[in-house]
Amino acid sequence: MKIKISQSDKALISAYRMLQDKEVFSAEDLAVKSWQEFPEDFCLAGYKNHPNSNKVYTFVMGQNAALIKNGYIKKIGEKQYKISSTGISHVENNLNQGEKDNKKFKINLGRQETNKLKEFLENKITKTILQNNSIDDLDFDDVSRFWKISNSVTYPDLIEKISQVDTWLKQLKEEMKKEKRKNIIIGDRNGINDKQLKLLIESQEVFKNKFKTEINYIKEQRPKPVRN
Predict the structure, then answer these.
(1) What distance in Å separates the CA atoms of residue 198 and residue 180, rounded to the nearest whole number?
(2) Domains of the chain as residue ranges with CATH
(3) Tens digit of pLDDT for each residue in 26-59?
(4) Which has the higher per-residue pLDDT, 130 or 1?
(5) Considering only Cβ atoms within 10 Å of each terminal Cβ, which end of the chain, N or C, has fewer?
(6) Which residues share a beta bridge with 203?
(7) pTM of the prediction?
(8) Is 131 buried (19+), middle (13-18) or exposed (0-12) by CB count in 10 A?
């Protein structure tokens, strides 16, 4: 059974398919690619041979830009974007079922994502959680290392980092459920069991709630991505 894919999802899928040709793309690139991949969704009304650029722009521009707000696409300059690791994971793990007949889709974590996940599991704060040690005394600086953010992080980058952790934890949980195993190996030697994963998921929620004030402060003070 195919899952229903929204138009913003289709724009994200289009960005994903551009990876083999270019890592950084313009808003215009995304508009054309989205139209090429999904012409019925992104053509001008009455003109199937012409892309409706404005429809695609709404997903990456303005206050309600869904793909930016969700951390799936990252703005790196004036009308310059790149799909984030969170966006790649979302396509490969959540959207591929709706596109299961499309041969361009490959469910593959890849070396880069594997290395990032391994680095996350080797993080000092992550190890504290995995060892079931108390996290009550951890402050925002500690959790910043867990999320791998700097003191000058912008709100879009912060959301991307938090979303990335959420995505990893969801991936691990689904993989364990699918394989019906209580342990999983990442890379050559990094392993995690179901109880440790539960601790990570619970800690992530604790951190997001405990530091709402700090997150909202960053949102107010640094709401926009840094432009290169």
Answers:
(1) 15
(2) 7-99 (1.10.10), 110-221 (no CATH)
(3) 999 999 999 988 888 999 888 888 899 999 999 9
(4) 130
(5) N
(6) none
(7) 0.55
(8) exposed
